[in-house]
Fold this protein.
Amino acid sequence: MISMNFLIDYNLNGPALILLGSLTGSGWLDLIDIRFIRFSEVELPMNSSDRQVWRFAQANQMILLTANRSMKGKDSLEQVIREENTPTSFPVLTIANVDRLLADSNYRERCVNRLIEIAIDIEYYKGTMRIFIP
């Protein structure tokens, strides 16, 4: 069975529950072992820098699922990825529109399908840096 851990950015705890509900309802969790791991479960402080969060996810072979990590500054997620990404690095998945994820079931389903696609084919997506979903 395929197994994948997603580190859920602290700002996505609520939306991640909605995604997890969609994964469960669609039967994906019967086929793929997917875990959503919150910062609190791994004792990662909510005020961790983007660099600390990215390094933690990489060290633990997790896909970081986020919505609004910074794209400017020397410790921004974008800068960290540019400096530290390797061909074996796990990608960062960024939900393009969290409000739409919450309000639009079709959009949410597209996000779920993209998340599953990436989890199943993770070897293909390693090193791709950041992927906006859906």
Remarks:
- The mean pLDDT is 93.
- Strands lie at 2-8, 32-38, 63-66, 92-95, 130-133.
